[in-house]
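In this section we walk through a basic example: taking a raw amino acid sequence and producing a predicted 3D structure, encoded as discrete structure tokens. The instruction is simple. Fold the sequence below.
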Amino acid sequence: MLWLLPIAVVAAPDQARDAPYVPSPDEIVAAMLDLADVKPGERVLDLGSGDGRIPIAAGRRGATAIGVDIDTRLVARANFRAREAEVAQRVRFRRENLFETRLRDADVLTLYLMPEVNLRLRPRILNEMQPGARVVSHAFDMGDWTHDFFVNLDARRVYLWIVPAVVGGRWTLMRADGTRAPLDLDQRYQKVAGTLGGGLLNEVVLRGDRLRFVHAGRTYEGRVGDTSIDGEGWRAVRAP
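The resulting token sequence is shown next.
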């Protein structure tokens, strides 16, 4: 099932105009990586990487990081700084249009872009990134895709989103005792409501690929896949 928001076909824009180079202060960089809880071995992707400070900081935490920028001089400078910081084995930079960068492999996506650029990237983030991947943005939000968390640092704000699995639609829920019931879920980003056997779900939480809800006094928790939701003592499969 695809998201209701279509992926726009984006012609290669003048990225220098769309994403001007304004570096994030070091304390903001640290806050972004803290909020995303970047761990050693994770893959960080920074779009509009400028002088490379975010990927380099991620590399210092043991992550593998890639920065992309349209400005050849900034890419060269960032690669030089990575060598100086002795993280070049984990951190690299390349010249690339950020609208054409592959997003799927990133565990964490970092952004300090203009609001309209975030909105143009949003459909690709939702459709291409894996459920549970984290997106952090300095200063600018994602429109009506509400952030999961945020922090304020002086007069600046950093936002975090956790990419949600696609759960909207009709499922058939099967319990361990053999009983079945239709599970209908309505989804808007990470916000989910629905019914099970016609009765309303309560306390519905979708966090990445983890779904939790309460129905008739029972708590259901499961992991969302492409065609199934698997939990302890229950399973749901997409209805044909």
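Looking at the output, two observations stand out. The mean pLDDT is 92. The two ends are 11 Å apart (CA to CA). In the next section we compare this with other chains.
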